[in-house]
């Protein structure tokens, strides 16, 4: 699949922008434009694990949205995070996926989403996405809110679960260390 799109927006003409222009000798344009071009071989052969990786600000999320659309927003309103999973899912399936994404603190499963740590929220959110959303499951800022040891364990477990269950998963991240353990196709 070819990637060829341009993002464009009006540039503010405020007094602060004019001051910034003067301070850094950076001429203000009427429009800000950035063009993305490349290849994403997602239709060439079967795959399970995809990866969009690059430095912060390089356009990874823009490319992700161009290829896969906006990420679905999950609602978290249950008395516990396990109550937020779709009602037709068995506790066994929920348990397996929570463990697969490294969300292994059982008492945390019994808490509402709002009181979990950022890392716990990240992991249980991936778990729900894997069980409830259609392929491909796309996760932006993959492993950005967890320490690198937790990220390493979680990446490996996610890719094993995805391959075993014949799903498609795309991680979007600025962390190049995910390549080794995620083993993207």
Describe the structure.
By secondary structure, this protein is an alpha/beta fold. 40% of the residues lie in helices and 17% in strands. It contains 8 helices and 5 strands; from the N terminus they run βαββαααααβαβα. Strands 3-5-4 form a 3-stranded parallel sheet, with helices on both faces. The model has no long low-confidence stretch (mean pLDDT 91).
How large, in whole angstroms, is the Cα Rg?
Answer: 20 Å
- What number is the mean pLDDT? 91
Quote the distance from N terminus to C terminus. 15 Å
- State the helix count: 8
Low-confidence stretches: none
How is the biggest beta sheet arranged? 3 strands, parallel
Series of secondary-structure elements, N-terminal to C-terminal: EHEEHHHHHEHEH
The 3D shape can be described as: globular
Record field, number of beta strands: 5
- State the helicity in percent bands: 40-55%
What strand line-up does the widest sheet have? 3-5-4
Based on helices, strands and strand pairing, what is the structural class? alpha/beta
Kindly estimate the percentage of residues that lie in beta strands according to DSSP.
15-25%
List the helices and strands and how they pair.
Blueprint: E1 2-10, H1 15-24, E2 31-39, E3 49-53, H2 60-68, H3 81-84, H4 91-100, H5 106-109, H6 118-132, E4 137-140, H7 148-164, E5 169-173, H8 178-182
Parallel strand pairs: 3-5, 4-5
Antiparallel strand pairs: 1-2
Give the key terms.
185 residues; alpha/beta; three-stranded parallel sheet; 8 helices; 40% helix
């Amino acid at each position: 699949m070819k990637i060829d799109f341009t993002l464009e927006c009006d540039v503010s003409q405020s007094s602060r922008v004019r001051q910034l222009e003067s301070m850094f000798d950076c001429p203000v344009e009427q429009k800000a434009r950035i063009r993305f071009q490349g290849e994403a071989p997602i239709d060439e052969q079967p795959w399970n694990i995809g990866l969009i990786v690059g430095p912060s600000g390089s356009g990874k999320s823009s490319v992700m949205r161009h290829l896969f659309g906006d990420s679905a927003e999950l609602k978290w309103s249950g008395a516990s995070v396990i109550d937020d999973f779709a009602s037709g899912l068995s506790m066994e399936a929920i348990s397996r996926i929570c463990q697969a994404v490294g969300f292994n603190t059982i008492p945390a499963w019994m808490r509402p989403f709002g009181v979990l740590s950022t890392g716990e929220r990240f992991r249980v959110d991936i778990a729900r996405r894997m069980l409830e959303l259609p392929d491909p499951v796309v996760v932006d800022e993959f492993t950005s809110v967890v320490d690198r040891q937790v990220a390493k364990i979680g990446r490996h477990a996610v890719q094993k679960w995805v391959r075993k269950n014949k799903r498609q998963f795309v991680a979007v991240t600025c962390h190049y260390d995910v390549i080794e353990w995620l083993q993207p196709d």
